[in-house]
Design a protein that fits this description.
The complex is a heterotrimer of chains A (324), B (573) and C (343). With 324 residues, chain A is mainly alpha-helical. In chain A, 77% of the residues lie in helices and 0% in strands. Chain B is 30% helix and 18% strand. In chain B, α11 crosses α19 (516-534). Chain C is globular, with a radius of gyration of 21 Å. Chain C has twelve helices and twelve strands. Chain C has two domains: 4-225, Rossmann fold; 236-342, no CATH class. Chain C has 343 residues and is of the alpha/beta class. The chains are: A mainly alpha (324), B alpha+beta (573), C alpha/beta (343). The interface between A and B is large, with 46 and 54 residues.
Chain lengths: 324, 573, 343
């Protein structure tokens, strides 16, 4: 396990460096002047010159990159936004919990829906439920996330008035008047975004789980369990589920990056100022420190999540755990 | 010039052209306002969204765009201010922090403001003249790295301003502690002007000149100081850039302007298309979107809520004139006959119709309704007249047939592209065969306009879509600021027309020195002369704002000076 | 009373291509403590027969008729809970591939304990004690150290011992072993067979040994049944079957058998493929591969009839007694002489 972790760690550092260099290169290749952007509305050449110096834009590319790494490692600083001067760490600190809540809660929801539906369709192939599940899968796969989100917001938020239409509430209660917060409000406001994620991903996962469960059901060890006299429930829960969840865990690890991408659209529909929105704004304003900050954060988050998935996989599958 | 507002107006993609004149709008909202004023009460939290935009900064001396000023108008205590009243009453200045309008002496060159007693910042500190003195200093200090005061000639108006601001010199050097022409003593603020200035009182109504703590720091950071004590009806309690702004009532506020909601919460969603906020407003989950109704939804919203200004759907005029600037420094638009021909060829209604219902009223003059000196005239048609264009253009137009004509436009929306394509088609029709489209994105759009070498170079523009909203209520801000060619320098130009006519310059000087009705008459004449004789621009429309409020919101009062509603006057039912 | 009595068992599977009749009227019986060897190629219906006996064919896809009486009780049509009580408790089962027949994510001990706990109201520690005991019994070395290992940490032979232990842990009356040695190497095969024999001697368990290997039958079984195309084509006491097989398919099987007593140096493959159960040939199922087939074989299914020598020895073939005797005698001589030449 030790060697496994060390190998993972090196891979993570490598990924991190590659991701940040690519982001840097993109910004140096596109024809724009960060100093002009940072300068703001009305600007004169002396002000631009001053900003260029203070942002170290006069230095060559590799030195700027080195400064960025140094500031991050030495001071834990990701720099300051060109546009409003706020610290990138603060900006990410504001946005990350929103995207985190969205993706994590969304993942819980889509698994909570797709596991039972997938299992039931596997147990009763060609039943009404299986076919209904398949229709649902097709809708989920074909419909764009923005469309799903808008429809949900319109029907459940607006027409029926069951849920908020948009915006985010902080999980931790704050005493700010007029700004909603607290766990209940947090969950209530995220119901629709989660549902959007659920529809989007549950579709794929129902297919995946159905196929895995059906495959596992035909495994020899399941026949062994039956021959032992195990009840259907025991066969399902003790023998089929854990084995059929193994590929799901792997796919989940791969999908987390995809989910961050999906978050961009979901955040747009539901007015959530998460990382996706931050990234879009920053990219359109050519606000390099914020873009790099979000990329760094997302890379680290994906790397950590994948590491956790590997650990979970090893925990689920002793063949991996005991052979490494 | 509050040009962000122009941008946001332009960005709204608009459609059919039912015209509602700005004045009609004023009357309509006046009726609503009076009706609701009777039931006005204090309390509650006003929930506002800002979709598809963000505050540049809420630092009073760094802010220069409409949405920023909308917030600041709730927090700033000004020497003179506009009352939160609907219609024409809302455009009449009243002394707010000052006990009365100032006394002018020394041939109008010494201005003295006496401040009211007992006004306080939200932290309990009393307001004195030093608080206003500091505002002047922050407007002009080179240490702010954004001397907007220079762009509006504030340094040239006040004695010692030029020396203090050092606008032309290297930034970053504060030359002196105070501006020599401004002195503060207790509740008395004395300002020495370089010459008599009829607009000076109007300028004092800009948010730049509100009371700030007398030790409020100069800051280099672009966002400025996020939170600071305010002496107006509200103060900024929370200010998270691009996310959340919370205003709370200043408990010491006893001024004439209302402070109805206890709290004003503004959530900002820079990338939102406004659809979510619209649904939220309709469902009563928020009170309004300060960006307005998305243009695609205007027609539906209008029919759902019984048309404009009948209830929850509000259409309001602005002080913003949208135009295509013609570059007087680059052939063929350096020729007045060609510029006039273009004014006949590119006409107003087709462009307004591209932008949706209630998007604006057609205009072919520089001054906007409500502005002193505004006198409606009709020199150029609302619809294209090609034969007239050709006859007016004459031989100059014929000679320019193959001269390159560059249309410069922003890629920020389909609407902008469509307008550019329309303009190209119209120019082709009157015989200008060599028309090129040049696009730029939002962030880099204004650089080439402000830089003379680029503007007049071979890749410079002949037509560029831009506009102007009032900084303060005086025709000077429209005519002199935009068309005084003596201000042209290599960079940082406001005169995007590169228009410089010595006889017109001296006429403008003359008008600027006048006061009262003579001033209005002089500017009315200048406005007309400008279009009839020189046609430096193609004015298109006076833009409108289109808002939807939640059912519970009462006492809608719209300030067309800001192009925004007065949050502090709203009553939450 | 026989322990297991199967009468006219028919199993049909509904597939997308049509009905597959995997078992067509199989009857046999097995007494306590006896061993029945069931021989046949893949697809002969031998495995399906016993999955049907155990109720392990999916009723959503399969139609089953006939009768399966176990210890006097009818199993066909019995409730799921009745079947469940018999499975693992009174009938144990071992499968062909020990590599895949154990749950890879559960410890060996857990899987053994599960077999105990399903049928007995005992504590987990008691279940563990029995598991250790039975692991000792199947000669797993250092069972107490290995009991918490996972299947992948065991070799194939060891896993098959675990499977046997699991099948026998509740001391069933009947053990159905479906090709228990096929996936194992020769040395391990012998060990496993020896072990099964030993355990049968100790516990008196009846065994059904399903195999395609007549050698295994010769070693272990009392009775033998040869299956082909879903039917029993020959059944007899083991010694009778080897002494005087009565039909061409059995002759072919014997020809392909490396054996100590009738030893053939050259393995004779039966030419051709097993019949399609979806579209079985008319007449005798073996006729397309049979060197001695004549018109009647292609038209008429031969009945299961007693051999001239023994009433317990029955077979299906249209060849008359004289022909069969002549052919078998020649065949036997050929097999023996080949051995001679090779030696």
């Amino acid at each position: 396990m030790g060697a496994f972790i060390i190998r993972r760690l090196f891979w993570a550092i490598f990924l991190f460096i590659v991701a940040t260099i690519i982001t840097y290169v993109i910004f140096f290749v596109i024809p724009s002047d960060p100093a002009t952007i940072a300068c703001g509305t009305h600007c004169t050449p002396p002000i631009i010159a001053h900003i260029r110096l203070s942002l170290h834009l006069n230095l060559p590319f590799y030195q700027q990159y080195w400064l960025f790494l140094w500031n991050m490692l030495r001071h834990g600083s990701l720099g300051y936004s060109f546009v409003n001067g706020a610290s990138v760490r603060w900006i990410i600190g504001q946005a990350a919990p929103i995207t985190g809540s969205l993706v994590a809660g969304g993942a819980v929801c889509w698994l909570a829906l797709s596991i039972p539906v997938g299992v039931i369709s596997a147990l009763r192939p060609r039943s009404i439920l299986d076919r209904a599940g398949m229709v649902f899968v097709l809708i989920g796969i074909s419909a764009p996330v923005v469309w799903i989100g808008l429809i949900l917001a319109y029907i459940f938020g607006f027409k029926l008035g069951w849920t908020p239409i948009a915006t985010y509430c902080n999980f931790f209660p704050s005493h700010q008047i007029g700004v909603c917060s607290g766990p209940a409000n947090w969950a209530y406001h995220l119901v629709l975004p989660w549902a959007t994620f659920m529809l989007l991903f549950a579709a794929l996962y129902v297919r995946l789980i159905r196929a895995n469960v059906m495959e596992t059901m035909s495994e020899d060890f399941v026949r062994t369990a039956r021959a032992k006299g195990a009840s259907s429930a025991r066969v399902l829960f003790q023998h089929v589920l854990r084995n059929s969840m193994l590929p799901v865990v792997t796919i989940l690890g791969m999908d987390i990056g995809l989910a961050l991408g999906g978050a961009v659209f979901t955040e747009t529909v539901f007015n959530l100022n998460g990382l996706g929105q931050t990234l879009i704004s920053a990219a359109s304003q050519e606000n390099l420190p914020v873009v790099v900050g979000v990329v760094v954060f997302a890379t680290v988050a994906v790397i950590i999540f994948n590491f956790l998935v590997d650990v979970a996989y090893a925990w689920l599958d002793p063949r991996i755990r005991l052979s490494t | 010039m509050r040009r962000k507002h122009v941008l946001s107006l332009l960005m709204l993609s608009m459609g059919v052209g039912l015209l509602v004149a700005a004045m009609t709008v004023g009357v309509a909202s006046a009726r609503t306002g009076q009706h609701n004023a009777k039931t006005a009460t204090r309390g509650g939290t006003l929930q506002v969204d800002q979709s598809g935009g963000a505050f540049d900064t809420l630092d009073p001396q760094l802010s220069y765009v409409t949405n920023d000023w909308t917030v600041l108008s709730n927090t700033q205590l000004l020497l003179v201010n506009f009352p939160d009243k609907a219609g024409k009453a809302g455009t009449q200045l009243f002394p707010e922090a000052a006990t009365a309008f100032p006394t002018f002496s020394n041939n109008g060159k010494t201005v003295v403001f006496h401040l009211r007693k007992g006004m306080k910042f939200d932290n309990g500190k009393p307001v004195t003249a030093a608080n206003f003195q500091r505002a002047f200093e922050r407007v002009l200090s080179p240490s702010m790295y954004a001397q907007y005061g220079c762009f509006d000639y504030i340094d040239q108006f006040v004695v010692g301003g030029t020396k203090f601001a050092n606008c032309a010199g290297t930034t970053g050097v504060t030359t002196s502690k105070h501006i020599s022409g401004i002195s503060a003593k207790g509740l008395t603020l004395t300002i020495h002007l370089t010459k008599a200035n009829a607009t000076f009182v109007n300028i004092m109504a800009m948010q730049w000149f509100g009371a700030i703590p007398s030790n409020m720091a100069y800051t280099k950071s672009d966002s400025g100081i996020l939170v600071y004590p305010s002496a107006g009806p509200y103060y900024i309690a929370t200010n998270q850039p691009s996310t959340l702004t919370v205003l709370k009532r200043n408990k010491y506020w006893h001024g004439a302007r209302p402070a109805n909601p206890d709290t004003i919460v503004i959530h900002t969603f820079p990338n939102s298309d406004g659809e979510a906020a619209l649904l939220q407003t309709e469902a009563g989950q928020i009170d309004m979107d300060m960006t307005g109704v998305p243009s695609a939804d205007v027609a539906k919203v209008s029919s759902t809520y019984g048309g404009p200004n009948k209830g929850q759907f509000h259409v309001g005029g602005t002080s913003c004139i949208i135009w295509s600037a013609l570059n007087n420094g680059k052939a063929p638009t350096d020729n007045a006959a060609v510029r006039k021909a273009i004014n006949y060829a590119i006409s107003r209604q087709p462009i307004i119709q591209l932008a949706g219902p209630y998007s604006g009223s057609s205009a072919d003059q520089i001054l906007v309704p409500g502005m002193p000196g505004y006198s409606k005239f009709h020199v150029y048609p609302s619809y294209p007249n090609f034969s007239k264009a050709k006859s007016v253009g004459g031989s100059a137009l014929t000679a320019a047939a193959n001269t390159p004509v560059n249309i410069y436009y922003r890629t920020s929306s389909h609407l902008q592209t469509n307008i550019a394509l329309y303009e190209k088609k119209q120019l082709n029709t009157i015989g200008l065969k060599n028309v090129n489209l040049e696009a730029a994105d939002l962030t880099s759009y204004y650089g080439p306009l402000e830089t003379r070498a680029t503007a007049e170079g071979s890749n410079g523009y002949n037509l560029a879509r831009a506009g102007w909203c009032a900084d303060y209520f005086d025709p000077f801000d429209y005519i002199n600021v935009n068309f005084d060619g003596r201000t042209l320098s290599d960079t940082g130009n406001v005169d995007y027309f590169y228009f410089n006519n010595s006889s017109f310059n001296s006429q403008m000087d003359h008008a600027a020195a006048l006061g009262g009705s003579a001033r209005s008459a002089a500017y009315a004449a200048l406005d007309k002369e400008l279009m009839v004789k020189y046609a430096p621009a193609v004015p298109i429309e006076v833009a409108n704002d289109r808002f939807l409020t939640a059912k519970r919101v009462k006492n809608w009062i719209y300030s067309y000076y800001f192009g925004e509603p007065d949050f502090n006057a709203m009553v939450i039912g | 009373m026989a322990l297991l009595e199967v009468t006219d068992l028919v199993t049909r599977f509904r597939t997308d291509d049509g009905i597959v009749q995997a078992v067509s009227g199989v009857s046999f019986s097995l007494d306590r403590g006896q061993t029945l060897g069931v021989v046949g190629e893949s697809g002969s219906g031998k495995s399906v027969t016993f999955l049907t006996v155990m109720g392990l064919v999916d009723p959503r896809h399969a139609d089953v008729t006939g009768s399966v009486r176990f210890d006097g009780n009818e199993l066909l049509g019995a409730s799921f809970s009745t079947l469940r009580k018999i499975r693992g408790q009174r009938i144990g089962m071992i499968f062909q591939d020990p590599m895949t027949s154990l749950n890879p994510v559960k410890r060996i001990g857990w899987q053994l304990e599960e077999a105990v706990l399903i049928h007995n109201d005992v504590s987990r520690s008691e279940a563990r004690r029995r598991s250790l005991e039975v692991l000792d019994e199947v000669e797993i070395p250092r069972a107490d150290a290995r009991i918490d290992d996972y299947p992948h940490q065991f070799s194939g032979g060891m896993r098959q011992r675990v499977m046997i232990a699991m099948a026998l842990i509740n001391q069933p009356d009947l053990l159905i072993a479906d090709e228990p040695t096929t996936a194992l190497d020769v040395t391990t095969q012998a060990q496993i067979l020896r072990l099964m024999k030993k355990l049968q001697d100790e516990h008196g368990t009846a065994i059904v040994m399903i195999t395609h290997d007549l050698g295994v039958v010769a070693e272990l079984a009392d009775d033998a049944a040869v299956m082909y195309g879903g039917r029993i084509v020959e059944e007899a006491k083991v010694q009778d079957l080897f002494a005087q097989p009565e039909m061409p398919y059995t002759w072919g099987l014997l020809g392909s058998l490396p054996r100590a007593d009738i030893t053939a140096a050259r393995l004779e493959q039966i030419p051709g493929q097993p019949p399609s159960l979806l579209r079985p040939p008319n007449g005798c199922a073996f006729n397309p591969r049979c060197a001695y087939a004549f018109d009647r074989c292609r038209a008429e299914l031969p009945e299961l009839r007693p051999s001239p020598t023994s009433g317990e020895h029955r077979f299906r073939c249209h060849l008359d007694d004289a022909d069969r005797l002549r052919i078998w005698t020649a065949k036997k001589a050929e097999l023996t002489s080949t051995e001679g030449t090779a030696a």
